[in-house]
Amino acid sequence: GKPATLKLDLGGSVWIVGSVEGGILTMVKMRFTGATKASIMAKRKSEKFLNACGNQDTFTEACFAGEVPQEDPSRPDEKSRIKLDVAGDKEPSQYSPSVGTAINGKPATLKLDLGGSVWIVGSVEGGILTMVKMRFTGATKASIMAKRKSEKFLNACGNQDTFTEACFAGEVPQEDPSRPDEKSRIKLDVAGDKEPSQYSPSVGTAINGKPATLK
C-alpha cells in the first residue's frame, strides 16, 4: 500500500521499480501490459547495495543485482514473497512518425497518436485526403490496421492542429493483395522516432506494501 519510490524506464514499457526498507533494497523488473497490469520479469533483493542505488537520481540498471528470491509458486500468500501492486500513468506511444514517414511517396503531414504505438497518418494530394491507421512494431516497421481515402473531407481534417480521430472516414480502398504493385494502392513508408515507454509507474506502485522508490 506504499508508493514505489525508485523507478527506471528501460524502454518498451519495461521498468525496474524498487524500494528500501529495513536496510534491504527490493526490486522488480516488469513489463506493463495495461494501466494496472504488468508481467513480472525478474526480482532481486540486496542488503549490500551501493548508496547510489537507493537514490532515484542515481538508480541505474546496474543496481538490479543481488539475491534472486526463492519463492514457491504454489504458496502465493507466503510471508517472504515479493508482492507488486501496479498502477501506471498513460504515456505517449513508444514510437512516433518522423519526417521520413510517407504515403505514396509524399510526406505524411497529418499525424495523430492514439496511444499504444497506434497512429493515424495522412496527407492531402490533389484534393484527396489519404490516411493510414498503423501500429508501430519497430522504428521502421508497422502493421497496417486500416486505410481511408476521402474527397469530401472537412477543412479541419486537412490541418494538423485540427486533425482528429473523427477525420478517419471515407472510402475503404479496394486493393488486391495479389497485386502489391497496382497503381491505385496506398503505399506507406515508415520512419519512427523512439519515444518513452507507453506506461510509467505512478505513486500507487508498491513492493510488499512499500513505495517503489527506484525506477
In short:
With 215 residues, the protein is mostly beta strands.
Order of helices and strands: EEEEEEEEEEEEEEEEEE
Helix content: under 10%
Q: What's the total helix number?
A: 0
Q: Strand order, biggest sheet?
A: 4-3-2-1-18-17-5
Structural category is mainly beta
Q: Tell me the strand percentage band.
A: over 45%
Q: End-to-end distance, in Å? A: 17 Å
Question: What is the typical, i.e. mean, pLDDT?
Answer: 83
Q: Uncertain spans, ≥5 residues at pLDDT below 50?
A: none
List how many beta strands DSSP finds: 18
- Indicate the overall shape: elongated
Radius of gyration: 23 Å
Q: Could you give a short account of the major beta sheet? A: 7 strands, mixed
Tell me what you see in this structure.
The structure is a single chain. With about 220 residues, the chain is mainly beta. About 0% of the residues lie in helices and about 45% in strands. It has no helices and 18 strands. It has strands spanning about 5-10, 15-20, 25-35, 35-45, 85, 90, 95, 100-105, 105, 110-115, 120-125, 130-140, 140-150, 190, 190-195, 200, 205, 210-215. The strands form five sheets. A seven-stranded mixed beta sheet has the order 4-3-2-1-18-17-5, with no helix packed on it. The protein has a four-stranded antiparallel beta sheet with strand order 10-11-12-13, with no helix packed on it. A three-stranded antiparallel beta sheet has the order 9-8-14, with no helix packed on it.
